[in-house]
Amino acid sequence: MADGKKLSSLDASFLYLETPEMPMHVGSMAIFRLPDDYKGDFFEDFKAMIVSRLHIAPILKARLEKAPLDIDHPSWVEDDQFDIDRHIFRASLPQPRDRATLERIVGWMHAKLLNRARPLWEFYVFEGMKDNEVGLYSKMHHAAIDGGAGAALTNMIYDISPIPRKVDPPAAGAKPGQEPRDIAANLLDSYQQLFSQPLDASAAAKNLQLPRTGKSDIGSILFDNAMYQIESAVRFAGNIPTVLKSVSDVLGKVADPKSRESLASMVSPPTMLNKTISSERSFAGVSIPLSRAKALAKQAGGKLNDVVLALASGVVRRYLRQYGTLPAKSLTAAVPISLREEGNTEANNQVFGMICAIATDIDDPKARLEAIIAQSTKSKEMSHPLRALMPQVSNISMLGAPIMVQILALLYSRSNLSDVLPPAANITVSNVPGPRQTLYAAGAELLHIFPVSISTHGQALNITVQSYRDQLDFGFIVGANIIPHVQVMCDMLPEEFAALEAAYAPPAADIKGAAE
After folding, report:
1. Is the domain of 354 the same as that of 485?
2. Which end of the chain has fewer CB within 10 Å, C or N?
3. Are 187 and 147 members of one domain?
4. Catalytically annotated residues
5. What is the CA radius of gyration of the chain?
């Protein structure tokens, strides 16, 4: 990562929207098992391994540097005072030192903001758990990472063998960055670049790079921002055909009477989950077999993500019914979709989202899953034209945005507007594909990796799923003022999974006939 790399507008928005009640970091709760004959100090071994691999993920040593007077997005710069002991900590669990205790501690820790004066990540190692297990809670600011880049970091931290692989050290004297060049030379190159391929305006616009001063005084910031605005305008102009087609497709969808029903289904009813949240969090995790979930999806004619949505729907439906607050209209879920191209491991956010009705108004598990499959297909069709627009609008820059957006976020948080405004979606459900092979860290076998995501005002409940080996690890995170003990929901998920499997099981008579 080159020093002085300015955050995109999408990445920076996670900083601006952050408040004490709404931290914008993501993380995981990993469970390891130490070898029976392990005699070392896992914390020290793990820390030494991370130190030896820091150069693989430069974002781990990058801190934020504000623009003067906060007139523009901040930049990532290498922390010349980086201290590993401020990022990896040895932690202890109170008795009985089991996973339930760890989950409660993780919920408490996840509510704490990261220190923006340092690189935005922390690891906590919990030793002395039952059954020779070790817990690892990690968190990293969403401004620095999304799920796709998170997978790349996972590959950096973990090994496929109990014996850690050897990683080549960084080249002597190597430091990412660009050689300084004369501004006039850069400007000349930019004009040549812009006009050398006049028949391919889109390609020329995409590759346009105007000169930057790279300095941090206000005059230089204004100049650099002007160069950025020119680049953005030219790139946007080069993509006008794509943008117009996307807008036309969206308008066509809205005008289509068949699509209006789909749009109506995306309107979210108010529920107890769509209120202002406190600064406290409740977290819990649960696992189900991946192969059985895939088999269920195949039987139903859907995707694995449809089964995940059906399980989330069943759990939320059951929970709200217990309190007599289940709306007659179906709840909706915000479902993030990655825009990251294969092989792109850059540590930034490249995501899009769709809203999908999750059929909480349907009692029968089989009919509910079938309805979700149909709704998911329609939602993808409705949102597809917008995907082409995202790269054009996700990096819009405006002078003064850091101050203005942060003030608006604080006002929204303090005014409790989410208690009265209709929710954009009722819950968030995200499915992150993970490795199928067994992973290790510092010699310890990884058993589970439960995602720990973000709760927001108006969408208190976030259910994120990580696949690993032959299991789906579900992480439930919620504002504790809304659901003090989210473990109750986790306990419902295996029951909902069993009900779905039973709904698709062949009748007993068919099984008997096949046996004969």
Report:
1. yes
2. C
3. no
4. 142
5. 25
Kindly list the distances between the CA atom of residue 380 and the CA atoms of 98, 319, 444, in Å, as whole numbers in the listed order.
41, 27, 40
* Number of domains the chain is built from: 3
Element (H, E) at 232: helix 218-238
Tens of pLDDT, residue by residue, the chain (516 residues): 556 788 888 888 899 999 999 999 999 999 999 999 999 999 999 999 999 999 888 889 999 999 887 788 899 999 999 999 999 999 999 999 999 999 999 999 999 999 999 999 999 999 999 999 999 999 999 998 854 456 567 777 999 999 999 888 887 665 544 333 344 443 334 333 433 433 344 444 455 565 666 665 555 555 565 555 555 555 545 554 554 454 455 555 555 555 555 556 678 999 999 999 999 999 999 999 999 999 999 999 999 999 999 999 999 999 999 999 999 999 999 998 765 445 544 544 445 678 999 999 999 999 999 999 999 988 877 766 556 555 555 555 555 555 666 667 667 777 788 888 889 999 999 998 888 999 999 999 999 999 999 999 999 999 999 999 999 999 999 999 999 999 999 999 999 999 999 999 887 655 555 455
Do 152 and 293 lie in one domain? The reply is no
pTM, 2 dp: 0.81
> Does residue 389 sit in the same domain as residue 313?
yes
176 in a structural domain: no
Domain that holds residue 231: 183-243
Domain with residue 55: its CATH number is 3.30.559.10
State whether 239 and 281 are in the same domain. Answer: no
Q: What is the 3-state secondary structure (H, E, C) of 110-158?
A: HCCCCCCCCCCEEEEEECCCHHHEEEEEEEEECCCCCHHHHHHHHHHHC
Do residues 476 and 364 both lie within one domain?
A: yes
User: Which residue blocks in 143-212 are alpha helix, DSSP H?
Assistant: 147-157, 183-195, 201-207
Contact (Cβ atoms closer than 8 angstroms) between residue 433 and residue 467: yes
- With respect to residue 374, please indicate whether it lies within any of the assigned structural domains: yes
